[in-house]
Amino acid sequence: MTDNDLKELLDFEARRINNIDFVKEDPVQFPRRFSDQRDIEIAALLSSTIAWGKRSMICRNADRMLALMDNQPYRYVMDEGYEDLPDCNIHRTFFARNMRHYLRGLHSIYSRYATLEDFAGDVLKGITDHAAWHLAGAVNRELAAANGGEDDCRCLPLGLDKSALKRFNMALRWLVRDDGIVDLGVWKVIRPSQLYVPLDVHVGNISRQLGLLSRKANDRAAVDELTDRLRMFNPEDPTLYDYALFGIGVSGRGGELAGSE
């Protein structure tokens, strides 16, 4: 398949999947419930943090998680309601103690900044490349400082030199992409051109089948390779093609398309 064929395929699949019907079965629906940017930011971070496994289970548990916060994420954080959160399982290996850890850090950030975007603006001054990893590192430091110096890999990955940062990159796609369809586009501190593909097993496999990715591991280097390739097709909005790769994967046509002339 030539590069022109690949671009045509990716553009077609992105248009097919990137529509409002996608929202109802995806965790992007949770930040979309809110109009206040701070609520959107907190819902995006928490919903993406538990976004692994079956989408139906992710959505069910994200809904429950927001209910624990009385569906007022920012108020819940600032009132420190998480300190009264009973021990419970939120989603698979993410428990109430992990949620408390995360929200203590967010409380610290929001006590000093009007929005998480403002915090990101401070962190990313002078930084144009790999913004997600710089920002994740800064958030991790805030979480640790708010929790007596303790880290928690259930909130954000700790080995950022190797991590693909799949879930955090997905949250940033929600917050930054601004085509007015699925993603919310409430942040301006990062441009869509600076985003990286949220790389999971399925996206990695489809990308290899299509010849977009050669690296075998789904790690940070693979994210770089895949995103650089997608920037060749759309330098201003490479993560648009996350929708395309998702759609091809769900359809099960990766192998068939890779073998077509």
What does this structure look like?
There is one protein chain. With 261 residues, the chain is an all-alpha fold. The protein has one domain. It has 12 helices and 2 strands. The protein has a two-stranded antiparallel ribbon with strand order 1-2. A hairpin with a 2-residue loop joins strand 1 and strand 2.
Biggest beta-sheet profile: 2 strands, antiparallel
Radius of gyration: 18 Å
Count of individual beta strands: 2
Helix content: 40-55%
Q: Stretches where pLDDT falls below 50 for ≥5 residues? A: none
Structural class: mainly alpha
Which strand order spans the largest sheet, edge to edge or round the barrel? 1-2
Average predicted confidence as pLDDT:
96
Measure the end-to-end span: 6 Å
Query: Approximately how much beta-strand content do the residues carry?
Result: under 5%
Number of helices: 12
The best one-word shape is globular
* Count of spatially separate domains: 1
Q: Topology as H/E string?
A: HHHHEEHHHHHHHH
